[in-house]
Design goal:
Radius of gyration: 20 Å
Helix content: 25-40%
Number of helices: 6
Order of helices and strands: EHEEEEHEHEEHEEHEH
Distance between the termini: 29 Å
Shape: elongated
Number of strands: 11
Length: about 220
Amino acid sequence: MIRLYVEGILNVEKSVVLTTAQEHYLRGVMRLRDGDTFIAFGNGEEFVAEMPGKIIEKTNRVDMANNAVLAFCPIKPSRLEEMISAATQMGVAKFQPVISKRVDIPKMNFDRFRKIAIEASEQCGRLSVPEFLPAVKFQELIKNVGKIYYGDERRVTIPSGDKAVDLPAGEEFTLLIGPEGGFAPEEFAALDDAGAIGISLGPLVLRAEVAAVAGLAKLLS
């Protein structure tokens, strides 16, 4: 069934307020007519709605989003968009841009990022859309965030090379992915001093958007 993310609070017997673009998509692209049904979701809940927008019932599906925060150093826009789409499908709850030493302060199009995250959420079946946090400097992140894991290219794939990964159920954690060119030596030292846990993503050099998916898969498994 067609799924649409809808802003605001959804309740049975209320009507979904569709945007002009959503109205066009349902009627002009998907050819729905009055009385046809679609899925409306948001805030971790999902409802069956009937055209032109009346909510009929709440589904019993549970949101499969998790407690991961993906902290990323901005990369080329097209590749960053791939990262956002893939990480949304992995269930990430929040995106945290990080400005590290080897990152030029970028102009980030958060409206575009959110649109990509919404489309990925509609496609993958989650019941919420990830949140985008304001960019922070590297030192601010490691000083103020609790449990941080990071892709450590200094490691290779050796079982004993990683510290134990312990993710208590329901507890938020952050995966930090470095910039093109990797972290600077002093940043590695700062991560180690802050108690962040480096994890191996294998013996090959991964692009940041691939490293994000590999790191999430490793932690969430």
